Amino acid sequence: MADKLSAVKGMNDIAPPASAHWEWLEDTLRTLMRRYGYRNLRTPIVEPTALFVRGLGEVTDIVEKEMYSFEDRLNGEQLTLRPENTAGVVRAALEHSLLYDGGKRLYYMGPMFRHERPQRGRYRQFHQFGAEALGFAGPDVDAELIVLACDLWAELGLTGIELEINSLGQPPERLAHRQALIAYLKAHIDRLDEEARRRLHSNPLRILDTKNPSMQDLVNAAPRLMDHLGAESLDHFNRLRGLLDAHGIAYRINPRLVRGMDYYNLSVFEFVTTQLGSQGTVCAGGRYDGLFEQIGGKAAPAVGWAMGMERILELLKEQNLLPEQPVPDAYAVVPDAARVPAVMPVLRSLRQQGVNVQMHAGGADGMGSMKSQFKKADASGARFALIFGEQEMQQGSVALKALRGPRNDAPADAAQSLLPLDGVASWAQRLRSA
Questions:
Q1: Mean of pLDDT over the chain
Q2: Which residues does residue 109 pair with via DSSP β-bridges, in sequence order?
């Protein structure tokens, strides 16, 4: 016997019944995106490695430690499984000239890949949903995306999610802050841990996001980027705040919020919760006006966010908000395999009328006893059983039996009724509206 094969660690199958929750969340997201005028974009899972090196920054954790990169054996091209999708969206917008007739509101969903230690809500293959607004420079679109996310939490019924915002200003302002930050940290180098010392000259902003308890007082007293912002950056940030205030959206200014990618400027934001342990960020994003130029295109403003779908589902589970599993409207009980050829067209007609109906499937030794079929009908969760018995079919009918009441916890009506086989359209609605 061959050795048993298993999925790669941190890359998980999503099987029923969990897959139904994913479908429900995806449908909710698509519906909300349509309301806001966002349209779907689908990009390849594999992209040129250079896209992420140039887009995210060579000294980011993602590029240095987490990417799945390899060489194409046919042509030697360096390729990477996408660790995020904003860079891919911008690459696609440039490649297909999506902004030739004005700004675009786009969304995506799909798997991303990062080589890190699997933990709750964080896997090597994980799934992101993202919304990106390309070609819009004003803070109104920044606010729109934040409001959109808040509407999503309301649609899902989620509570306990808090909004943090900050401004990273423009590159010259960040450079001035960077120099002040390096000077400050060098003066306290004896208090820096090994990771902070490594980042001191390559990416000092990320030191502000340290989780090391012994460094919290040090980073809290560090020079603040907000103090280096010019008038235009402050105006953009204050206008964003005014729009959030007008919507009644609560937020906290977090001067240590810097995000992990080099492409961000001006507005950055995160939605966080305390209900998922250390993995508290459920949605994050910001403005990335320089990314188009970084990957070889003409400058264009852009802003967006991404959320981890595993984390949202974990939070929904934590708050008991996941929907009940879908069940068929009816279950077809077929006592005799010889009747299957006559039964299947009736069931097909029901499905064409919008009825979700599941047919009992027999084995090599026949269809099984009526008792066993009714057990499976009840286990399916269906409200009704359709009984295709010999006597009923000779009369041109099918017997309808209620397995449970209008609500699942209500008793079923013990009576059976006969329905005409040649009049499916006249009684299909009865099954759909149960």
A1: 89
A2: 129
Mean pLDDT of 202-217: 82
At what angle are helices 340-352 and 424-432 packed, to 10 degrees?
A: 70
Three-state secondary structure call for residue 380? coil
Q: In what helix (H) or strand (E) does residue 3 lie, and over which residues does it extend?
A: none
Query: Cis ω on the peptide bond leading into residue 17 (within 30° of 0)?
Result: yes
pLDDT given for residue 370 in this prediction: 86
Rounded mean pLDDT of 237-263?
Answer: 88
End-to-end CA distance of the chain: 49
Nearest by Cα to 384 from 361, 409, 358? 358
Contacts 24+ apart (CB under 8 A), 28-34: 28/152, 28/155, 28/156, 29/107, 29/109, 29/129, 29/152, 32/148, 32/151, 32/152, 32/155, 33/107, 33/131
pTM recorded for the entire structure: 0.87
Instruction: Confirm if 419 and 398 have CB atoms less than 8 A apart.
Output: yes
For tokens 């000239």, the residue is 97
d(CA 366, CA 381) in angstroms, rounded, equals: 23
**Contact (Cβ atoms closer than 8 angstroms) between residue 67 and residue 114:** yes
- The reported pLDDT for the residue numbered 433 is 61
Residue 238: partners with Cβ closer than 8 Å, 6 or more residues away = none
Write the pLDDT tens digit of every residue in 44-65: 999 999 998 887 877 677 787 8
Share of the chain residues as helix, strand and coil, in percent rounded to the nearest 5: 40, 20, 40
> What contacts 46, CB < 8 A, 6 or more positions away?
79, 80, 81, 82
Give phi and psi for 93, each to the nearest 5: -60, -40
pLDDT at 117: 76
Q: Measured between alpha carbons, how far is 334 from 253 in angstroms, rounded to an integer?
A: 64
Q: How confident is the model at residue 202 (pLDDT cuts 50, 70, 90)?
A: confident
Domains in the chain, CATH or no CATH each:
18-169+229-318 (3.30.930.10), 330-432 (3.40.50.800)
DSSP letters along 145-158, please?
HHHHHHHHHHHHT-
